[in-house]
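Two folds, back to back.
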Amino acid sequence: MKQFFTLTLSLLYFMAFSYGQTDQRLAIQGVVVDNEGVPLENAQVELLNTSFSTRTNNSGKFGFQQVPNGHYIIVAKKPGFATISKHFQLNSDTSEVRLIIEPETNRLEAVTVTAQKREEIAQEIPLSITSLSHDAVKESRIQNINDLTAISPNLYASDPGDRRTVTSIRGIVSTSYDPAIAVYIDGVNQFNLDTYYAAF
């Protein structure tokens, strides 16, 4: 019995050690600076498609602990500065990640979208996407989905008179209860005309 117990403990230790080797977790250290090299305090830094998110300290430094090896997109943003993204491969050779963000008047922002069910940078995916920032929505005074047609190309949305919305993209439309255009509100599919109201 004692030999069986010892063998079991040894096997469990070996399995835990092997699993630790394949799922190695590392720390990421970095700094966020402006285009003149001045550290930026309280900038938000996150790894896309993970729960890792933090803010920089008064020296512009940030860190994440226990991050699995792999390829990541890191995003840094701060009010008054353009959001930037950077691809990097995390492994034991990864040194400090340096992120340089410029004033928003100097460059276009990196736009994060979830068009393919994961967070990606809009400029890097091969899809036709119209994305609007919070400021653009405010400046355009968009109140509902019908207002989007004024600023989004190839989009048509109309209320046929019964307080529902019929939507078409590039001429593809259906006024039946099985719409041709999928509409999601907070990740929930509005599967027919009775569930999809422009006021949402």
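---
second:
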Amino acid sequence: MLTISQLASYAGVTVRAVRHYHHIGLLPEPERDRSGYRTYDAAAVVRLIRIRSLADAGVPLGRVQELLDAGPEEFADGVREIDKDLRAEIRRLQGTRRRLARLAAGEHLALPQSVVDYLDRLRGLGVVERYIEMERDAWIMIAAQVPQQIDAVIAKKHEQLDDPDMVKLYSLLSEALDWPVDDPRGVEIADIVERMMIRAVNAGEVGGDPFDDRFVRLLDSTMVQSAPGAARLVAILEERGWKGWTRIERVPDDRLNREPPES
């Protein structure tokens, strides 16, 4: 007869594992000797080795009992079912690894692929990383607000990048992060924005964004705090009859149909 330590040694497991298998019912409790110690026979060694072999093969402990008691056909069916479950779990884990790998790049955290691709396009246009980081944070907030519409919003942004004025605007905005408050180039930015907005108004493309007023104010305040000359830019636009930044709107006056500033 064997002690629990000897049983564990013969089966290649720990004493703690043997006690755990007793606790969950995989290994029946043996009789005890006169001193109260468990005593085991060869059948216990064989069963414990089978338990260990199934567990080492990846069979969940909750299904080991089922396989131990199964006939040959039932055993084969059970193994196939477990293998199917394991393959599904492997696919899930592989997907998790792919998401973690994307997260390592930073921008995939809370951002859909469409926005990441858009930011990469800005990089390709030479927009500086500091400005892209600011825009990324804004897009994180936007994507959380309109998750079902974000791809359509980004598609529109890609269309806008086909406009040379938009490309020039991004170039100037990324440079403006280090400009002094009264840098005269701020007027050039205002000219481009106004020129684009007049075209959009005349084409009937202004309005209809999916954001509530409070969220628009949040994005606008973030923009104003982004660079020394940002508040001045907004002020210049207001002087010309425009208000806002995220949602630029025309202040009604007699300048609606005036000629856009020249390029």
